[in-house]
From TrEMBL:
Record Gene3D superfamilies: YhbY-like
One Pfam family this sequence matches: CRS1_YhbY
Protein name: CRS2-associated factor 1, mitochondrial isoform X2
Keyword Ribonucleoprotein applies: yes
Domain annotation CRM: ranges: 186-284, 306-372
Region described as Disordered: spans on this chain: 57-102
Record InterPro entries: CAF1P_plant, RNA-binding_CRM, YhbY-like_sf
Domain of life: Eukaryota
Keywords, alphabetical: mRNA processing, mRNA splicing, Repeat, Ribonucleoprotein, RNA-binding, Transit peptide
Amino acid sequence: MILILPFSDTATAAEDKNPFEHLKPFMFVAKLSRQKQAPLALALKLSTRRLSSRLHDHYSFKPPPSLSPSPQNQSLDGKNPSSTNLMKKNKPRYCPPSSLDRTGLKPIRSTLPFDFRYSYTETSPSVRPIGLREPKYSPFGPGRLDREWTGVSAPAVDRKVRSVEVVEDPKLDEKRKAMRESILGEPLTEAERKILVERCQRNKTKRQINLGRDGLTHNMLNDIHNHWKHAEAVRIKCLGVCTVDMKNVCTQLEDKTFGKIMHRQCGLLILYRGRNYSPKKRPFIPLMLWRPHEPIYPRLIKTTIDGLSIEETKEMRKRGLSVPVLTKLAKNGYYGSLVPMVRDAFISSELVRIDCQGLERSDYKKIGCKLR
């Protein structure tokens, strides 16, 4: 049994004289039995309820959560916290804007008069692949470019082309030549050429573009134009597979950038932008967001050589293993002298052996295709 007695019987009468009289502590008398003890927590709960109600009646005082009747189910402002938690859970999470979201935007249009490819030096429009490794997803992003991706290139002529085999329009070649001549202007004099070559040396500037295994890629065109903002010429260093055919590298650089190569030393090139070039009127080059998968081409090494039987082909391969090595190719080296060496070796022998240990598998396949 629990008895709750006030400190004074005349507490209500004394409230008018002394308003703080009711705040005096209460006397608790508890009779506890040894067999079953009375819950002391119930007594404390009843006392806090009475104290909080009297404080609110006399002083309009809102008790803290520790003195409220049900602090677990109600918050200070009287709202149910479970409902607020439910609202927070239903609130959608913030998602940052995506660059691939093209809702309400028109496709980008580029006026460059050539087909867009991932690599301009390591692929040839004349070689037709026999299949694709992935669906025709445009590496420029969905709906970002007004050209259709054929799995190999984005042609500049027919937007609805669906074939892998693309024949370049002869009018595009004439348009590229006209644009290049208008940008280059008058040719450089010998004194001007020497000054620009001297400015692009290693001890003068650190600006340089590196061409490696993939050769001249599409996004490198944008890098070249960015360098031309600050200087009239840019230094380009070529290493790896693309150096087997440096003539093709120089041709593609001049054809796709409308510039002029005014100096070449082994794999080091200096590309001039032209007299009439204006960075504010530079052509718009859409960037590839990812590298597309290479298509499937015919096998480089066939079962039989053309004109020979299977037994003769096997015999010739055995003889090739015993031929002394002509040269050993280093990784990411300069291979510009490889083609003349092979041609000279064919004068005295019908088989030539080249050591490609240490190179990537794709590297020596490309080297073999270029040599063939």
